[in-house]
Design a protein that fits this description.
The protein has a 6-stranded mixed β-sheet. It is 36% helix and 30% strand. It is α+β, with helices and mostly antiparallel strands.
Amino acid sequence: MDMSNQPKEIAEGAAKDIANDIDQVAVVVDWLDACRRHELGPLLDLYAPEASLECDCDDGNTCAGRAALESYWRPRLEAFSPNAFGLEEITPSADGVMLDYLNSEGKPVRIVFTFDAAGKILQTRCAPFAPATALDVAGAPDRTW
């Protein structure tokens, strides 16, 4: 991005925003890699101590704190599906990062990550997701968030 014609403060702010997006995307990639490797400890280390998770994929689970996140993730990481944790799309968003991926059962899910000032995951919200079809690409509204 060429910022040479922008005032120095705007250029520095834009560069900082891009760096923050890249760092957050990197955390989400690390999150997905930990899931793929079925590594619970490294996965949990990416979360802030007060992190929460809202999951509308099954019965609307909500949990907060490391112990609750461990209880949520342990059975999902122990389950095996050949398509588990496949990356569909990853996008920086205004509030963090949005990831479309295949969950532990190989089903499409959209998860939105928000982060604390230290770059740790503060909150995740996930829900089933229907990947885009030709109609969606042509301008029909998205079926989720």
